[in-house]
């Protein structure tokens, strides 16, 4: 168990910018931290937007691309049991043109639910030839514990931002490239 204490030490002016100084004590080890103090509202909004963008980048570890028609999506692949179990659970953002790709070893029945989800999503099941065999659109987190897609065999499942499948025209028989 970690013991964490935080002490405010003061302010310092560096190159016309004010920073607060904090001394964090974690398990008896000191860590100093400087935080920029922003007084300008517009500058504060810009910093918040940059931080939000950084959080999205940290939250998504894209490792491949998939293609449908003229559309390209950066994907995070879930191929290990733990990654498949976790999926998008706990995520609070879904960037445009991103998807999560679940890869299974066989063409089998793969059911999905919305456990610990914060976002509505579209789910698309693909067979071993990467053709769409089933679609669930705008699935709400409140549907948990209902299971989706467990009645169609699939080798891959894609999760998109809610509304994407309709917007770009994904339908049964559509083909993805990856």
Describe the structure.
- The protein is α+β, with helices and mostly antiparallel strands and 178 residues long.
- The chain has two domains: 1-38, no CATH class; 64-168, Protein of unknown function DUF192 (Jelly Rolls, Sandwich).
- It is 17% helix and 43% strand.
- The protein is globular, with a radius of gyration of 22 Å.
- The termini are far apart.
- Residues 1-9 and 53-57 have low confidence and may be disordered.
Salient structural properties:
178 residues; alpha+beta; Jelly Rolls; six-stranded mixed β-sheet; 43% strand; globular
Element string (H = helix, E = strand): EEEHEEHEEEEH
Biggest sheet record: 6 strands, mixed
Q: Helix coverage percent of residues?
A: 10-25%
Average pLDDT metric: 80
Beta-strand proportion: 35-45%
CATH topology of the largest domain: Jelly Rolls
First-last Cα distance: 44 Å
Shape type: globular
Structural class: alpha+beta
What radius of gyration results from the CA coordinates? Answer: 22 Å
Number of helices: 3
Low-pLDDT parts are 1-9, 53-57
Per CATH, the class of the largest domain reads Mainly Beta
According to DSSP, the number of beta strands is: 9
Strand order of the largest sheet: 4-5-6-9-7-8
CATH homology group of the largest domain: Protein of unknown function DUF192
Q: Any idea what the CATH architecture of the largest domain is? A: Sandwich
Number of domains: 2
């Amino acid at each position: 168990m970690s013991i964490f204490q935080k002490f405010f030490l003061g302010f310092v002016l560096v190159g016309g910018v004010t920073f607060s100084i904090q001394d964090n004590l974690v398990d008896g080890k000191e860590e100093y931290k400087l935080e920029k103090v922003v007084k300008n509202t517009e500058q504060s909004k810009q910093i918040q937007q940059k931080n939000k963008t950084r959080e999205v980048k940290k939250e998504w570890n894209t490792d491949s691309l998939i293609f449908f028609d003229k559309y390209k999506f950066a994907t995070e692949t879930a191929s290990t049991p733990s990654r498949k179990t976790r999926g998008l659970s706990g995520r609070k953002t879904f960037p445009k043109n991103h998807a999560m790709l679940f890869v299974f070893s066989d063409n089998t029945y793969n059911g999905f639910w919305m456990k610990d989800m914060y976002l509505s999503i579209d789910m698309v099941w693909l067979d071993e030839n990467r053709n769409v065999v089933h679609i669930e659109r705008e699935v709400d987190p409140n549907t948990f514990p209902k299971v989706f897609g467990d009645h169609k065999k699939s080798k891959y499942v894609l999760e998109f931002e809610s509304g994407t499948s309709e917007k770009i025209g994904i339908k049964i028989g559509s083909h993805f490239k990856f």
